[in-house]
Design goal:
The complex is a heterodimer of chains A (591) and B (130).
Chain A: E1 8-15, H1 23-33, E2 44-46, H2 57-63, H3 72-81, E3 87-93, H4 102-108, H5 110-116, H6 124-135, E4 139-149, H7 152-166, H8 172-175, H9 183-189, E5 195-201, H10 208-216, E6 234-241, E7 278-284, H11 315-324, E8 332-335, H12 342-349, E9 353-358, H13 361-365, H14 373-378, E10 386-389, H15 395-398, E11 407-412, E12 423-425, E13 447-449, H16 452-466, E14 467-480, H17 485-488, E15 495-504, E16 509-518, H18 527-532, H19 539-546, H20 548-558, H21 562-590
Parallel strand pairs in A: 5-6, 8-9, 8-11, 9-10, 11-14
Antiparallel strand pairs in A: 1-3, 1-4, 2-3, 4-7, 6-7, 12-13, 14-16, 15-16
Helix pairs in contact in A: 1-11, 4-5, 5-6, 11-12
Chain B: H1 3-6, E1 23-31, H2 38-44, H3 50-64, H4 85-97, E2 98-106, E3 113-117, E4 120-121
Antiparallel strand pairs in B: 1-2, 2-3, 3-4
The chains are: A alpha/beta (591), B alpha+beta (130).
Chain lengths: 591, 130
Amino acid sequence: MIPMDPSRYYVLVEFAVRHLDFLAAELASVLRLHGITYGSPDCRVETLPQLGPHPTNSTAIENCSHVDHKNTVQDQQRRNEKRQRPFCILSFPFDAPCVPRLEMLADEVDSAKNLATSSKSQTSSETIGNIILSRCVLVRSVMELWGYGPSLDDCVEQVRQWTDVSSGSTTASTLTTTNCQHSYQKLVRDHGRSWKLTVHTLGCTYSREVQEAMRSRFQFLALPGPVQMNDPTDEYVLIRETELDDHGSPLPGGSIDSAASGTNPPRTRYKPNDSVSCCYFGRALGGTRQTKHRGDVSRFSLKSRAYLGPTSMDAELSFVMANLAGVGQSSVVLDPFVGTGSILVSCAARGAYCVGTDIDIRVLRGKGENSNVVSNFRQFDLPRPELIRSDNAIYQRHFRRTHIPMYNAIVTDPPYGIRAGARKSGSRLDQPRPVLESNRHNHIAQTKPYVVSDVMVDLLDVAARTLVLGGRLVYVIPSFRDFEPESDLPRHECLKTVHICYQPLSAELGRRVVVMQKQSEYDPTQRKTYLAKSWKNGAKSAERCANIRDKIMEAAKLKPNYQERAAVRKQKRKIHKEEKKRVKLEKVEMS
Amino acid sequence: MRILTHNYLQSNVKGTEKGYPLLIEPNRVVVEESPVNLSMLQTLLPKLDYSAIVQAARQLATYEDANEAFTVPDLPDLLPETLDDLFLTALYKFLFDLHVIEGHLVCPDTGRKFPIKEGVPNMILHEDEL
């Protein structure tokens, strides 16, 4: 059993099982916003109790039809090495100086307001819960942890010890400082608080009787308030964790409960197996466990927006990116490839002042009065973003040379030539033809293709130049699985890499969100030296970043029946084109 | 385009020495009220060129006569040493709430006009200006 330190309070963070690689990074970034350093003694990350080995792991894979046979063995090994569990236990000392900054929190996020109204009487764990729940998109619930362990018995025993300590029987004399507001003292005295106890299981189902038996183990808590199933003041939760796969489904195998699946075959149920589960017991923070917080993202869904483009970033990921960038009230944020503004919407929703630049005037203007970047902001009552048509390749020529770093964050999805090609100013000719002064006012500036590796280098250079110290650059880069982030990503002396989160899109291809932080001042006279050091392995690294479109095309050509399918698509395009032509002709004839 | 943005845009047509601050020739200006955020203004203010703000205010004041929809604050030539909330609020509203929707930005050295359409200044350089 893992002993709990009585001078600290424990919080269990339950994540949604998605974007697994982003979970810890997002949590750490949100805590950093409030001056809490994830992993420091003031916010320690406790080790999760060990999950027992899955009894049927090896045999199950062979029997399971939906698993791709090609790479099962390697896959299995990789997964075992780096399996992300959707839980995180944090512990904080009761006298942590950094925690109660609730007034700031209440201003910061609207949704936090109703949570924080009772801030005066709030315990420290409730404060932490509010900080996390009001911002983290990938957090499902936060609990004040009373006990945990690799089995139910351990868990019950620990809860017993925890309540003993906090009710003041043993070591209380050393703990009863003014800061030490142990929740249990408060709760056990308050007869007005209604409550319920939920048993939550991951990946298996327990019968009512078994659940009831588990509940009765906690009778000793003697909570005085009335039990209320609907909307109680407090919800106590017992979580039983079993091993899950990357999609949040139980691992294949287990012992399938045939009785339960009798009438409804597709929904397989797994019998609980005590040897593979861990237990957590605690009190849900910020309402009940089912209360939807998720950083209040659902209303920003892309479906609700009038103006979209092929590269609009989905609402969830763009809110995660805003969190990773540490965007908050009074932040100044830049997106140098703004497009339809989908990333900036999430930053503005967090209270940032947003600036977006793009070289393509058509995306900035949009499709008319009610379908453009500005209308996407207006729709959510957000202030108008500042849009500028400029070229990121020559940033220093558009913006003041004595420009003092002013951006707190740069959050962007650069064009990689997969769905949107990159362009920069300039003519393809060595000697561009001069523009007649009389035509200057409505001349359309020529652009030429912009090599992806240069896009990256320029982006880092602009970030190093314009971010404030400690400001963050967050960008997306599509990449193959064999990509080595350590050696292949562009680098800059003034920026250090903080997080790299991988989101798999298919077996081979995925995208990475890279978070960099400015660590030293930019010296404009050193620009050439900075640029020269961008790639660790010179042109080889640059090439690995650059030709993703070509690689995707090559990979597609290797698929069976590629030729036939390509021919069919070509035929379809041809028919479509002819149809369009015909309609156009008919219109002309009609008029 | 906000006046704040005007503060850090420059013209850099081939051969321009300074190209800053740009002259504003407004054709249409609108006011969109936003919540006043003085702490943001105070962190931004040392990074701005105050004389360019004053110049922008003078130029917009001449336009103001034709259209009474907005007011331009009467700014002193030099930034006062002590900043009271009243001054800061007026400055905030001028920098953040005024939007030049149609008009031009003009390079003070070469006279090159950068159009502002639908609130978006077009700073792109033509191929012979690079």
